[in-house]
Specification:
- By secondary structure, the protein is an alpha+beta fold.
- It has helices at about 20-35, 35-40, 45-50, 55-60, 75-100, 145-150, 160-175, 205-225, 230-240, 265-270; strands at about 5, 10, 110-120, 120-130, 135-145, 180-185, 195-200.
- It has one domain (about 35-260): Lambda Exonuclease, Chain A (Alpha-Beta Complex).
- A five-stranded mixed sheet has the order 3-4-5-6-7, sandwiched between helices. A two-stranded antiparallel ribbon has the order 1-2.
- The radius of gyration is 24 Å and the shape is globular.
């Protein structure tokens, strides 16, 4: 019997094993993840400009590609899927609300692109999760685990905070007034939305401008070093300060032997845990 689907008649039965079915659907999923626009993005975006790690920010600006042994990034895919669901719900709400108003007007703008500034003469664009036009607030969704939720109680990370203010700057520059920035930390592993965290603060344009200024300083140095060749660029990036809490240092080509998070080689993480070797018989130690 042939079944009719939205795409037309179904294929005929061929036969095989469940392992074949699982192999093929996994390949389909992996292909979709690795070829998603977020995975293929090479130019720096607002979410990365505030990275406190000078090394990794410079590496991104230089166009270095990360080499991640985890291969297929599943957690970001979960985040992307939740973002898509949230966008759908807000759009449904807006359609219903506007349909019942005599003077309709959009309150929420979902996933709208905005130019947040320039780095090395290049316009930097990003997609804002949500703009509440009524209150002048941008809201960024973060789908996070328990560790990030705990840290967020003390305030957002430098990356997240800069990203929010960059979006606000971009919208103000585009003529849409934004007075507040907010981050909705949505729990990835909890049973209840009550376990999430809702952070906000007044928009401070200077935070966005400082992040852009820092990125432009690094980009200026990279441009000057490019004339000396890729080895000079790589040597300069390698000696830049690395942030203790950075998860990206080990993902770049010069990250062999670096632990996560942070930038200490494995030997350093054992310091103080292994007693020094006793001196051999007949030797003395320095006073």
């Amino acid at each position: 019997m042939t079944l009719m689907t939205d795409l037309g008649p179904s294929a005929s039965y061929v036969g095989g094993h469940a392992t074949d079915a699982l192999r093929d659907i996994r390949a389909l999923i992996e292909h979709a993840i690795t070829n998603h626009p977020r995975s293929l993005q090479r130019r720096i975006g607002p979410s990365e400009i505030g990275n406190p790690c000078d090394h990794c920010l410079a590496a991104k600006l230089a166009g270095w590609q990360q080499v991640d042994e985890r291969s297929v990034p599943w957690l970001p895919t979960v985040g992307t899927a939740v973002h898509a669901w949230l966008e759908e719900q807000v759009i449904r709400h807006e359609v219903d609300r506007i349909g019942n108003l005599s003077d309709p007007g959009r309150r929420y703008l979902c996933e709208q692109a905005v130019m947040v500034g320039t780095i090395a003469g290049q316009d930097i664009w990003g997609s804002t999760d949500l703009v509440d036009v009524h209150t002048g607030t941008i809201i960024d969704y973060k789908i996070v685990g328990l560790t990030t939720l705990k840290k967020a109680k003390a305030g957002p990370s430098p990356e997240y905070r800069a990203q929010a203010h960059l979006y606000a700057k971009g919208w103000n520059d585009a003529g849409v007034r934004v007075d507040h920035v907010a981050i909705a930390y949505l729990p990835r592993n909890a049973m209840s939305l009550d376990d999430g965290l809702w952070w906000h603060e007044p928009h401070d344009r200077s935070i966005a401008e400082a992040a852009l200024e820092r990125a432009n300083r690094l980009a200026t140095n990279l441009t000057a070093l490019t004339a000396l060749g890729p080895d000079a660029v790589a040597a300069w990036i390698r000696q830049l300060a690395r942030h203790d809490g950075c998860w990206d240092c080990s993902r770049y080509p010069d990250g062999a032997g670096i632990t996560r998070p942070g930038h200490r080689p494995p030997a350093d993480t054992l310091a103080g845990l292994i007693p020094p070797t006793a001196p051999a018989a007949g030797t003395t130690t320095a006073a």
